[in-house]
Predict the structure.
Amino acid sequence: MNNPFIIGVISWFLPGVGHLVQGRFKRGLLIGAVVWTMFVIAVLSGGIYYPGFEFKDGALLYLLNIFARLGSGAGGLISFLLMNNPPPNVAALATFEYGGRFLEIAGLINYLAVLDAVDIQLERKK
């Protein structure tokens, strides 16, 4: 697979797989493990329901949250599906905001991993 666009899309949607496709097994497994572990911790701590407000209440923060969450690719899409029915007391959880941060950081780390995979494909990096 020699198309950097396809490598980028694969890397974004399934964290770590873009590196695996290119034969970078250790790097791909490490990236995938970090992003998916952070995603699972975020889900278990109630982070998929963060922020606890709507777009009209804080547009910039809401958009930044969505951008960061979408960075996880499949994990971001899963989180959007799971957040449709929040429990009534989710904001009272002590881990609610931490989970939200974990979800956002997982997405941002994956954005960096996508750039890394594309750079490797374009031979700008070894």
